[in-house]
């Protein structure tokens, strides 16, 4: 598809949506002061001059600010969607029409189109890849080994993607550096907990318009995303059950005041089920069979494999759309199960994703991780690398300054004390 107003190649739904996208991007920018400061510095220093960069991300108003910052830094950037249902079409149109950034993303695109866009991204022969979920990296390794020589490195900010990268390294196929943005303190403490917690419930409410107070809500997984989801669901009056496989996280959930049990025990009790594990088939056929009539099932993990929809679809006598992003599966036992957002990320399928204020820090990490890779080209070993502590702390400092919050600093006496072993009782 080629626009009349630009020669930039792209595949978006409708360029006429650009004015609405521009308005929404500007609104998001009010809550993203840290990334703005980084963009202003990038515009002066041009750290990505001559760098071909591919970003496989959720195409949202917040991602737009990251893409604009990278281009300001001199990057030859191209953007594709990391999930078929997460694209905001007006944002995609604005990035093409107003910022001349090639975007290949359409909300609701089928799997064939999604994989074609992954190939389009690799056709760009990237030096740096930002990859939510590691689909681009996995495809590069599996199908385009000859392009690895072009690659400086990749960044990853999803739990699912980090799991895949660790598996790649274990298998000896991750032969280049990858920045673990997901585990930066200014990412997972805020984005995963507060961002996922709020946006997941926002998506459920938009899709169903149900009252959460008094409902039994089952949260599968008690990582940072699960913690945030359980916390916010309780805040809205839900009775929370947590399912876990990790004994330490399970104890933590108990001590946070939640009931903990296996999914087999939770399935007959829950009114709403939310998966945030990053694993496969957390809710399966044997769970659907014992659920209450009208139980609502949704996912806020990166991929749509956490709920076994194939077995549900094979069993169902009828499937019908009852609201936008809301499908009802009629089972042979006379009961129904309602699935939201086709089992994909409910916070992006039915809502707008994380609030801009938390994505400000997450995308600051992404931008600085890309800069770190380029500055250290050829110096980093293959495998996962953490965001430098000083970078993480500086992002937090900039965020506090933007919020008008001051904190204490150590006195010389305190500095001496914490660096000495001689002082005691």
From TrEMBL:
Keyword set includes NAD: yes
Binding site for NAD(+): 158-160, 192, 221-228, 244, 279, 300-302, 347, 354
Entry cofactors: NAD(+)
Annotated metabolic or biological route of this protein: Amino-acid biosynthesis; L-homocysteine biosynthesis; L-homocysteine from S-adenosyl-L-homocysteine: step 1/1
GO (cellular component) term, any one: cytosol
S-adenosyl-L-homocysteine hydrolase NAD binding domain location: 192-353
Subcellular location: Cytoplasm
Protein name according to UniProt: Adenosylhomocysteinase
Domain of life: Bacteria
Binding site for substrate: 60, 132, 157, 187, 191
Catalytic activity: S-adenosyl-L-homocysteine + H2O = L-homocysteine + adenosine
Keywords: Cytoplasm, Hydrolase, NAD, One-carbon metabolism
Gene: ahcY
UniProt GO molecular function: adenosylhomocysteinase activity
The protein's role, per its UniProt record: May play a key role in the regulation of the intracellular concentration of adenosylhomocysteine.
GO terms for biological process, alphabetical: L-homocysteine biosynthetic process; one-carbon metabolic process; S-adenosylmethionine cycle
Family to which this protein belongs: Belongs to the adenosylhomocysteinase family.
Note describing how the cofactor binds: Binds 1 NAD(+) per subunit.
């Amino acid at each position: 598809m080629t626009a009349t107003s630009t020669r930039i190649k792209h595949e978006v739904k409708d360029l006429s949506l650009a004015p609405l996208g521009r308005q929404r991007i500007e609104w998001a920018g009010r809550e993203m002061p840290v990334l703005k400061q980084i963009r202003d510095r990038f515009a002066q220093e041009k750290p990505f001059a001559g760098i071909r960069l591919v970003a496989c991300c959720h195409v949202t108003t917040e991602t737009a600010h990251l893409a604009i910052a990278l281009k300001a830094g001199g990057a030859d950037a191209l953007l594709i969607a990391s999930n078929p249902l997460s694209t905001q079409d007006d944002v995609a149109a604005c990035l093409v029409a107003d910022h001349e950034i090639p975007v290949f993303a359409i909300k609701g695109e089928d799997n064939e189109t999604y994989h074609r866009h992954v190939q389009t991204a690799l056709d760009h022969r990237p030096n740096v890849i930002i990859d939510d979920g590691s689909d681009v990296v996995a495809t590069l390794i599996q199908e385009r080994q000859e392009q690895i020589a072009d690659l400086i490195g990749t960044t990853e900010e999803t739990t699912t993607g980090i799991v895949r990268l660790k598996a790649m390294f274990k298998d000896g196929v991750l032969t280049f550096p990858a920045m673990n943005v997901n585990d930066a303190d200014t990412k997972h403490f805020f984005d995963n907990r507060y961002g996922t917690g709020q946006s997941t419930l926002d998506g459920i409410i938009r899709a169903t318009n149900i009252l959460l107070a008094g409902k039994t809500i089952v949260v599968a997984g008690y990582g940072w995303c699960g913690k945030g989801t359980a916390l916010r669901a309780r805040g809205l009056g839900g009775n929370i059950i947590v399912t876990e496989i990790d004994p330490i996280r399970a104890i933590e959930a108990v001590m946070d005041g939640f009931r903990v049990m296996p999914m087999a025990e939770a399935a007959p009790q829950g009114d709403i089920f939310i998966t945030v594990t990053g694993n496969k088939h957390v809710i399966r056929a044997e769970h659907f069979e014992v659920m209450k009539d009208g139980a609502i099932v949704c996912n806020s993990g990166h991929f749509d494999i956490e709920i076994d929809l194939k077995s549900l679809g094979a069993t169902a006598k009828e499937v019908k759309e009852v609201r936008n992003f809301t499908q009802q599966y009629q089972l042979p036992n006379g009961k129904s199960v309602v699935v939201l957002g086709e089992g994909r990320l409910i916070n992006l399928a039915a809502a707008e994703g994380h609030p801009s204020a938390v994505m400000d820090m997450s995308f600051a990490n992404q931008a600085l991780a890309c800069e770190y890779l380029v500055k250290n080209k050829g110096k980093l070993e293959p495998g996962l690398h953490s965001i430098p502590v000083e970078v993480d702390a500086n992002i937090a400092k900039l965020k506090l300054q933007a919020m008008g919050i001051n904190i204490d600093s150590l006195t010389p006496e305190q500095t001496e004390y914490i660096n000495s072993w001689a002082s005691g009782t």
